[in-house]
Amino acid sequence: MNFRHEASYYARKDGKETMQSSTSNPRLTLSEGDLGPVMASLQAANERFTATYPGIQVDRVPVHTVYGGAQLYKVGVADKLAQLARRNLAEFAPTFVDFARALEFEGAKSLPQDTGSLAPLQAALEVDATAVRATNPAAWLAWTVYQRVQRKLEREAVEDQRIDFEDGYGAREDAEEDGHALAAAAAMAQGLQADNLPPFTGIRVKALTEEAKARSLRTLDIFMSTLLSATSNVLPSNFAVTLPKVTSPEQVSAMHQCLSLIEAHHGLVGGVIRLELMIETIQSIINPSGESAIPALMRAGKGRVTCAILGTMDYTATCNIASTHQSHAHPSAEFARMMMQVCLTGTEVTISDGITNVMPIPPHKATPDAPLNLQQHEENRRVVHDAWKLHFDNISHTLRLGIYQSWDLNPAQIPVRYAAFYYFFLTGLEAATARLKTFIDQAAQATLVGNVFDDAATAQGLLNFFISGISCGALEPDEAIATGISMAELQGKSFQKIVENRVNA
Hints:
- The protein is an alpha/beta fold.
- It is 51% helix and 10% strand.
């Protein structure tokens, strides 16, 4: 069907409205006067909807945020984290087979581990990975993920970093926190001048509870004033302030007001300091009236809020769940995710999932006088691999829910972060490409690819797969263009518009 503006359907004839048709001129009951108010009302409602739900964004979103205590923040700390991540990967997964087996990739158990069999397979992959893919897809997948992870750790291991003055920092004397706020701001200023900050960065302050509000805002003021004074009022790109344990819109409004005052005082554009809210209390999900609290929290930020972050452990604690049962997979955490997704998907506020709180830290440490024995080596490997697998499973679960960001606490988690993303998108790429291409080629008529039925809603989901994959860095634009869509169409984010382009071509 050729999609046309509604006005083109109607023409006046003898004072009556008639629908234009190549085969007939049926008489209509509704006049232009009847339809005018209806159309205006629909237009206003549709425009409000579009303003509230602009759709899944194609702008870059970091796949993770790495939190670290403010007392540890130094110039070049992101580079140090990258070194630790690379060292951990090399120690506990020296080959792509080790990594694939630890994370239990599909077909990983069939891959060779002995050097004699692995060396020729590795050589073949390095010469022509595409040819190996045709005969040994498990090897190609494991090798491709491993190579991409290694390149990412070399190029940009940390995408987003948050200097933490909250849980990762703890309660300290005022003078000590003042000193750490000054030192951290000075270090960030030096990092900005040296151009070695991650592409996204910021701080997490304490909550605006009655007990902590004065300390929270004092730390914010010291840090921001010191940073902007040292940089001549230049703010790092994609700088954000994270507000934890939010319980009311008034807390969000208060932070927005303080950030606005800081911006005005330092001559910054209003709203340039992004605000992120941590959803980690019952009251940030359901308000005292029994309504969803999330939309009101976002509105209180007056357009400043860019991300909502699930604090899994704190949230489950407020649900009165015993610490031994608090986990990423607990049903209460799943409920919070679903509430966040229902309220925020399609808006300009992104969603970040919670942490894996089991760290891949080996229990045994070698010293010059006491090297590790074989049993200790094996126990270290098992502990790290088990923690890796848990982290991989948690991230994979989050990706299947349509959430493409969460946070890490330890550099040894970072290689697994990227592995989960690359594995998720690479394993779905071939089928998604075939299905979307077929649907586009047939101009949005319902299709059957193999035994999978696709309609327009499914096609939008397939388009979202490529939008999200490119946004998080797991897919290249060329891999989306292979489906037959253009970059302009991809950036439009609407499958219906793509269909209209094909039908009207």
